[in-house]
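README: folding subset

This subset contains proteins for which both the sequence and a predicted structure token string are available. Records are stored as plain text. Below is the entry for Protein Asterix (114 residues), shown exactly as it appears on disk.
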Amino acid sequence: MARKEFPGDPRRSADVVPYTPATSNGDGSIYYMVAFVSSMATLFLKNKWAGWIALYASLLSIFSDRASASSSGGGSRLSTVVLALTALLMSYMPEVVTLFKLAKQETGGVAAST
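--- output ---
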């Protein structure tokens, strides 16, 4: 039985296909959508885990973005980080307010002046 040559043999100059980089901008878009949906879930449901997922996904969205794609949609990627941080801040705000109230009660209700 005769041996069949592999199609696209690199030893043949006619069969060499030059590399062309991918032009799709879909690498970070899944992270972008996860970050946006998780941020909204954090704001509406006060779920802290969703807030941390939103922050992680928004950072992945920025870091997985290519340099050629960042010029067109870089601002929206940065806004997801701000939205995720704001959602986390709003979900942790009741604990922060409670700590300030407890600290104020311990000092006797008088604000310390410097």
